[in-house]
Amino acid sequence: MRIIILDKNFDTLGVVGIFNSLIWDRRYYESGIFELHTPVEYFELLNSGKYIYRNDRTELGIIREVSYKQTDKGERTAYVKGYFAEHILDDRVIQNTVNITGTPEDISRTLMSTYFLNPTDSGRKVWNIVLGERKGIGTSTTLQTTGDNVGTKMYEVEQTQEMSHRLVFDYQTNTLTFEVWQGLDRTDSQETNSWAIFSNSFYNVKSVVYDRDESASKNYAYVAGEGEDPNRTIVEVDIRTSPDEERREVYVDARDLQSTYQDADGTEHTYSAGEYKAMLRQRGLEKLGEYALVETINSDIDADANLVYRKDYDLGDLCTYKNTDVGIECAKRITEIQEVYEGSSVTLTITFGVDDATSITKIIKREAK
């Protein structure tokens, strides 16, 4: 692994040959973060840099904070913190109402073109971002929104279909390629990809702590759009896995979503009844995501067992967890992988699920070879 510091023009300033610790936190439904601690002799290099790049990863880090510290014993260190490149997508806001129908992939690519690649205001253009290959994933929905940060809105729309986006950095060309993607299904219920099963039966799971909390969960939404009672348009969104599942309702006021709108040229358009209800359903799915069941499993994983990071499982992959001792079995997506490097030690903290909601966190510790 080489840690390379780049300036604002992506020219190489230098290489960090020695560091005290590095946290490289990859995330699926939000921008990743990093933190690098080094000996003090690297402070000038870090302080003059804009970006941090690892030659063994495709993520690009944007330096947001630089610090120098000296203890009362005279020990001096430097460190930088920041976000991965996806964070710059929140530097643009949707200042006017946008109306887009398509898959989450199509919606995100349209937002990229509108606010970063071909904006009407040339000052908003980011010169080194390009659109990657369209993968054709997802099902169609309708988005109407105003005032959101572009990157955050992309994640919200994509998450309703368990998708994400990323900016893949090419060190040779200084380009960031935007793509919408979805991790592989590695559960034991499919035959397309190799399985990633974390289980005490396979001796790759050590200690385990299981917690479940459904006190704030909701699974059924009434989404109320335009109109006045009794003529108000209301859509019901049911995310229960079975009609026998206990129904927990929430009311969503979506009056801001309108069936009639004007485009950039001032031409008036009207959504069909079906399109408008699809838009309300999308809002309902996003809101129900805020009320998910909390289910957490924290386990230490034996890194010398049968699964290899970035080969047998990676960020975004859907994996199987089983504990035969207490009858726990579930399929969850990897939404965060934190890599921590300290000397010869490498620690991986892997989270399945969304934050505290339906999450499984596993700790992997191994010595660097």
Descriptors:
369 residues, mainly beta, 14-stranded mixed beta sheet, 4 helices, 24 strands
Low-confidence stretches: 356-360
Report the total helices: 4
Radius of gyration from CA coordinates: 23 Å
Q: Termini separation (Å)?
A: 12 Å
Mean pLDDT: 89
Please state roughly what percent of the residues sit in beta strands, choosing from under 5%, 5-15%, 15-25%, 25-35%, 35-45% or over 45%.
35-45%
Silhouette? globular
Structural class: mainly beta
Succession of helices and strands: EEEEHEEEEHEEHEEEEEEEEEHEEEEE
Biggest sheet statistics: 14 strands, mixed
Helix amount:
10-25%
Oligomer: single chain
Beta-strand segment tally: 24
Q: How would you summarize this macromolecular structure in one to three sentences?
A:
With 369 residues, this protein is mainly beta. It has helices spanning 43-48, 104-117, 150-159, 273-288, and strands spanning 3-6, 12-16, 21-27, 33-39, 51-54, 60-70, 76-84, 98-102, 129-131, 141-145, 164-170, 175-181, 197-199, 205-213, 220-224, 234-238, 249-253, 260-262, 268-270, 294-301, 318-323, 328-342, 345-354, 357-367. Helix 2 (104-117) runs antiparallel to helix 3.
Provide a descriptive summary of the structure in words.
- It is built from four helices and 24 strands.
- The chain has 369 residues and is mostly beta strands.
- The strands form five sheets. Strands 1, 2, 3, 4, 5, 6, 7, 13, 14, 20, 21, 22, 23 and 24 form a 14-stranded mixed sheet that branches. The protein has a three-stranded mixed sheet with strand order 9-12-11. A three-stranded mixed sheet has the order 16-15-17, covered by helices on one side.
- Strand 11 and strand 12 (175-181) form a beta hairpin.
